[in-house]
Sequence to fold (603 residues):
Amino acid sequence: MRAGPPTEQRVAFVTGVTVVGLVVAMVCGLVVGPTSIGTWRVVGDVFSHVGIGHSTLTGLQSTIIWQLRAPRMVLGLLAGAMLAVAGGTYQGVFRNPLADPYLLGVAAGAGLGATIAIVDVGSGVSTPTWTPLLAFGGAMIAVACTWLIGGKGLRSNAATLILAGVAVSALLTSAQTFLQQQSSANSITHVYLWLLGSLASADWQSVLLVVPYVAVCTFVCVLSGRALDAMSVGEDESRSLGVRVSQVRLIVIAASSLGTAAIVSAVGLIGFVGIIVPHIVRLLVGTSYRRILPISVIFGAAFLVFCDTIARTVMAPSELPLGVVTAVIGAPVFVVILSLRRGSVR
Amino acid sequence: MSWVEVDHLSVKAGAATLLSDVTLSIEAGTWCTIIGPNGAGKTTLVEAVAGLRRVASGSVQIAGQPIGDLNERERARLVSLVPQHPQVPAGMTVRDYVALGRVAYHGVLRAPNAGDHQVVESVLERLSLESFAQRDVATLSGGERQRMVLARALAQSTMVIVLDEPTTGLDLRHQMELLELLKTEVADCGLTIIATLHDLTLAGQFADRLVLLDQGVVVVDGPARDVVRSRELSEHYGMNLRVIDVDGSDVIVPVRH
Fold:
């Protein structure tokens, strides 16, 4: 049996709890780490930056907070928000619960781009600085190919685009596998680390690079909620209701893909956030994308910063792959909420 | 006044011709039902009138405006559709579902305004759906669901409604209730109805005019009483059909050879 549509009170409660969770995750992102700095001292330092009170941190502590943890936390917020809202948007536009931000080839394209960059160095001693650029380019070329192959874009339907995405992903992944097979073991290790995704290399420069993409693309995705609700009755019916399905799909896919490509180029492939967060939010606030998308932005941001805090602390000084933590935390949370929601209407 | 003009309309799917040179002129405030055996092209015709089919040749005009030249929003203000198998998104309330009928007016970026809400509440009341308004659409029975889909079409405030087998899956009482509701809307609001129906008795009793379609071609077109008595009806259905007058209403029954 299904739960009924959520009440406004429940939506307000979930939104409130999510915002509190975001604040807690942000504080954890700044406070938790190998160097112990008291929570209130860190909070006091943050307030001192907006002219309230004064900081009690030493120079070294300030550097740890503002040059290491803060950019990492902010990049985590941006990545979590973008991946979650892109996943939710894809699920809406394709009316497919298994859709995630990598559906149309972003992951495979970025993976191939990054592999070309890393393998091209020859010795594969490190991840070269132009890796993000090639990853971004690869992701956008992959989506463009999917769009062109899948029935020349505007005339295509959702199923054709998904199949085109599968084909493009398979082709690019096989090219990436070939390159890896031809390269040194050291290169393969770097490619593998990149593919797992990490916020370890975050700095303010990478934050500034992705902020414009994430801001614009998240805004467009959230704005598409009403259109996606109307499209939930199917393509023909929504067209008969006055929805310009082709245009909506083009705009929404462009925004989701561009934002995801920007994030992937900065942090690699972080799995699970884009598929699990919108589903968790859907279970909590119902099926309307007008609610799912904005709450997914907050939830995704909080979720990824929280997971990253765990990833960099439980096995310090080494780090757990972020994608592993998102799955290990996200899957049980999802199962618990699913069983609670079912139980509540039995 | 002719409100819907179908002019030499042909629709193809690959090499197959689904409609061939169909010409119809439908008066405002009348009910025209398209009948015909399976594969006759009934659904294709109503979908073409709703602007959902690419036409090979010919045109459809509603209120003098060529449907093919209009964008989705302009079209949705002229003609609304009740599909044969409407998609019902679980988790949506009946009120929100009916409110989708107003998208053509407020667009997909703006929220519905007070006028839109007023139209939705009025339609919910007219179709006795107020008590279901906050229910999940997935929990409705077949009859309630069809009424809800009709409510969404009425919320579009168009002068033309096309319905593709609106009584599919309903028991006899609910079939009659739905068609009576439509008849009331035609009488009260001057709606123009273009529907497809498999049940010839209901088609004959509710429509002002019947159009018999077979293999994409209009075979007979005329007043309902004449068409149900026409020789072509039995011929094109490939069976022996009899018309029985019951209290002034025509009942069409098949007779075994």
